Amino acid sequence: MPRLFWLLVITSLILLLEPRPALAYIGPGAGFAVLGSFLAVFAALFSAVLMVLSWPFRWIARWLFRRRPPANRRFKRVVILGLDGLDHGLTEKMLAQGRLPHLAALRDQGCFKPLASTLPPISPVAWSSFQTGVNPGKHNIFDFLFPDASTYQPRLSSVEIRPPTRRIRLAGYEFPLAKSDIRLLRKSRPFWSVLSDYGILNCIIRVPITFPPEKLHGVQLSAMCVPDLRGTQGEFSRLTSRESVIGEATGGLIQQVVRNDRCIHSHLVGPPHPLRKDAPPLSLPLTVEIVNAEQARLTIGRESCLLQRGVYSDWVPVCFRGGFGFNVHGVCRFLLLETEPHFDLYVTPININPEKPAMPIGYPDVYSVYLAKRQGQFATLGLAEDTWGLSEEVLSDEQFEKQCRDIDQEREQMFFDGLDKTPEGLCVCVFDGTDRMQHMFWRYLEADHPARPAVVSAASEKVIENLYTRMDGLVGRTVERCNNADTLLLVISDHGFNSFRRGIDLNRWLEEQGYLKVDESRRQEQYLAGIDWSQTRAFALGLTGIFINTRGKFAQGIVAEGAEVEALRTEIAQKLASLVDPATGERGIRRVHQAARAYQGPYKEHAPDLIVGYERGYRVSWDAAIGKTSTQIFHDNTKAWSGDHCVDPSVVPGVLFCNRKITTEHPRLLDLGATVLNLFGISTPDYMDGRPLEVADLEEVNLATQPSAGQAVGT
Question: Of 651, 667, 701, which residue sits at a domain end?
Fold first, then answer.
């Protein structure tokens, strides 16, 4: 870790000596906000210099007054490898087939168990419980979205970005006089903050719901809910001469271009203007010169690169200039889809440039810069794999899979660098590709899936199995770096996976039951816009939640608090539990949970009143998830997004592997924080709901019988 510290110090000094423009940031639901005025930037640079110069004194003070690490710690290092969405059932099946040799060796040396997820078993909720050791009623994350109490519009559950309140207006421009306010809405403390109290080092890489990053003793790189440069959760661009595809695309911006012989002149749309609300978004001119049917030369800003048809470019830096030195830096990749007879170019979402981050994505700030200097540019977007690009049929299966594999390779470099530089303490890294690829390729596991194409290649049918063997190879390479008696290794997932064959429109069901009233002329409007709130007692928003339109809680609430709300919750839960799909004769819902009974803590009032636990094969419909109301309750799911885990927690347990025996019968995800603290000799804090798992001492194991990392299939 000292080597990492000095690398960060040297990198920060280089940055301080380099002339840099004022940066800006964007955020979901908050538009585009400038970080601060020139004075604020100068103050930040001065503070950074002061921080470097005062480091020896601060280190001495911390050493003198820190809480000493307990003497009874059982391990020098704990390593947690998170494989988001790795399914227990599929893992068990492939282990039995002998196709996961490294995971099998880990199981034989230590253990393999199902790991109970959270209610609901979705990533923002589950990873929040993992890091804090508490139920959602104490950490305040219940879904990806929640409805604004005043407008009913959906808002991101994990982060709020408020633009600067102090501005000076001059000649039509608005210059900020303060920084914007970025707030993490997840409550409670991560267990690595407790480790930091005792001076134990932490390296936390891409754990979901860590944006903006919090201070800790060590380094951290944020993940889920880090926006792209436009302020969305991931919006691709497509520049095409095909008139047939021009129009609205979910998750993407389609721009029509005109060919002038062999040259295309267009622009890349960037963030909103940082200084003028009435101005169009910033943009960056680009030129593409077609060399031949397979190649084209792209020029954008000061960058130029040769594009090969069907091959991703490297990350290309882009700079959007807002005037007066307010510049915004990003990175994106280009994929030439077609040159003849039409021109077609795909651009990934514009990620925040890790070398010149427009908003805090790492702690300390220079950590992302250090990683970029060490390994090159990398994806910073929270949901970096572009699932919408595949769903909208802009990307092919192979092109999406390649994108996922590239991001995994970037993550592995970060992870192993963290392992090498954290010989003592905690190192945690989460890989997302396991989740994204199962979402998109589950249709190939079932011959009768509604989203399965008529013609399927042999490679497509094996893509998820190959994914699991590839992750097994990652586990093998991780074991090689953790194969000593002083390191405890945990391989975990936050939930499992399930087929998504049929969608249930909860708002349509509520409408038919008389709980919700829709203005017929506005039925297809998103985000609950077409609902008559004066006649609506309950509504659905997000992936698993139903909200009672309670008086005093929502601006137009009509249901009285207390007995009336309680009765309505019970009534809806009982009716939904018996909902049958007429096309299959099956129940679509396993159980409806009441938040007031399922959660404990000060934030449970923020939860949906009811959490729907779906049966296998079912999930909330696409319309209901974004607050639209269709004309029928059940729908076939024909999108590429064909697998999911937004079901009842009992259906999708995660996995727990360890290089030591764990004797606890039913381990839970929220037990892991308390377990790590216990292994370092630290008592479980009173606020935690999790309890330490029983981890046995090291037994004699013939490590020579374990396969080497290179023996794994698909590595």
Answer: 651
- Identify whether 670 is part of a domain: yes
d(CA 8, CA 11): 5
d(CA 540, CA 533): 13
The residue from 651, 668, 685 where one domain ends is: 651
Q: Is residue 608 part of a domain?
A: yes
Q: List the structure tokens of 348.
A: 């990934």
Query: If DSSP states are collapsed to H, E and C, what string results for 696-708?
Result: CCCCCCCHHHCCC
Tell me the per-residue pLDDT of 127-152, one tens digit each, with 9 for 90 and over. 999 999 999 999 999 999 999 999 99
Distance in angstroms (rounded) separating the CA atoms of residues 687 and 135: 10
Do 542 and 637 lie in a common domain? yes
CB 264 within 8 A of CB 239: yes
- Strand, coil or helix: 150: coil
Do residues 548 and 605 both lie within one domain?
yes
Residue ranges of the alpha helices (H) in 120-225? 123-132, 136-139, 191-197
Q: How far apart are CA 592 and CA 545, in angstroms?
A: 10
Q: Under a CB-based contact definition with an 8 Å cutoff, are residues 117 and 648 in contact?
A: no
Domain that holds residue 628: 500-651
Longest CA pairwise span in the chain (Å): 76
Predicted confidence band at 20 (pLDDT cuts at 50, 70, 90)?
A: very low
Q: pTM of the full predicted structure?
A: 0.90
CB environment 80-107: b (16+ within 10 A), e (fewer) = bbbbbbbbbebbeebbeeebbbbbbbbb
pLDDT in tens, 328-384: 999 999 999 999 999 999 999 999 999 999 899 999 999 999 999 999 999 999 999
d(CA 500, CA 212): 32
Q: Does 44 map to a domain?
A: no
Listed in sequence order, the residues at least 6 apart from 328 whose beta carbon sits closer than 8 Å to its beta carbon are 23, 24, 229, 270, 271, 274, 282, 319, 320, 322, 358
CA 161 to each of CA 18, 536, 684: distance values in angstroms, whole numbers, following the listed order: 28, 30, 33
Q: How far apart are CA 88 and CA 86, in angstroms?
A: 7
583 shares a domain with 444:
no
